[in-house]
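Chapter summary example: a protein plus L-homoserine.
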Amino acid sequence: MSVVNIGLIGAGTVGCGVIKILNQNKEIIKNRTGLTLNLKKIADNDPGRKRPVKLPKKKLTSDAWDVINDDSIDIVIELVGGTTIAKDFVLEAIKNGKHVITANKALLAHHGKTIFGEAAKKGVEVGFEASVGGGIPIIKSTQESYAANNILSIHGIMNGTSNYILSTMTEHGYEFEDALKEAQEKGYAEADPSFDIDGVDAAHKLSILIMLSFGTFLDFDKIHVEGIRNITSLDIAYADELGYQIKLLSIAKSREQGLEAGVYPTLVKKGTQLADVSGAFNAIYVVGDAVGPTMLYGMGAGMMPTASAVVSDVIHVAKHLSLGNTHPAMPHPYKSKGNSSLIKTSEISTKYYLRFQAADIPGILGNITSCLGKNNISIESVIQKSRHLGGGDVPIVIMTHEAKEKNLVSALKEISKFKAITGKTNFIRIEEL
Ligand code: HSE
């Protein structure tokens, strides 16, 4: 085989980046693979739309099935997104014996087991480097470079939109809504930002890394997911005063009892690598038993970084094709060393940041702390500021020692019934890396 024929479905931002890279780096790619990569067909439901690259008219079709059913196409790139029609495209392409490259994290998080299973049956590859961390090479690192390790933990900033918003709130003291508005104006957040700010996108990515690192396809709906809508400028200011930054982290930890996994806002110590990741950047901090702590950092989204990851998969598959030796999809299912059943969030233990809003009356601090004590929660430090919330209310900020989440939830439920508690209590988990 000297030419590999590629079909692209979805000529949006990333699709155009793929076209651009395949053109501008044609020679480099040929040298690396020994093959000519021929982009044979491009399907898009709006072929006439204005784009940053020229689409060759004779290759264009508005019908994705023209690509999927073309016998001469070896590799199909799916950049449509979503979990409905994209699933049909991917499964049908696999059925037709094509290798598939996708950036679609939602699809893999919800239907990965089916897709990898079908690909394994057909002996075709599924490349998904672009599905997590955009241009960051986390997928191949996990599949190859960390392969000798028992992975102990993953902590990722895997949603650039949320990280941009939290960074803006930290830098300028903005409230969430203002930071979101700015992110939308600058093109970092979509008109409907819910997948990003509610942690869903980060959870899709986390579930893919869990599948690779811990050998388990989690039931996506069981992953604990919280977004950043409830983070206030007050929390960011207190976190800063206490030496922390607030980050939306995707977390997976291998424990004796199983796997702790979740996406939620987290206090991380200032000066640590993850705390220093700001703006729209992503970073993934992985600890393996042999390699120790490592961190990969880069652009988690955008036309060229994401296209870089897509084309890396094309090259990966093309190299195998040139050797006449494809590597069916994934070595799955396999048994990881540890227990990979999901631990309920109520059973996790960590340190907490708590912010109460209370009427400044004698005894309220004592009542709060004794309720925490009664629930087996030990206090590390307390900050009570003077009245500046209006109406005689004060913020009371408490940092706890490590405590069980279900004890904390019980304590907060009791405390919320105190007459002197005048606003919503915010609690944020603390991660010590
Ligand atoms: N919307 C994502 C982010 C990029 O903000 O990081 C694509 O996954």
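Key point: The mean pLDDT is 94.
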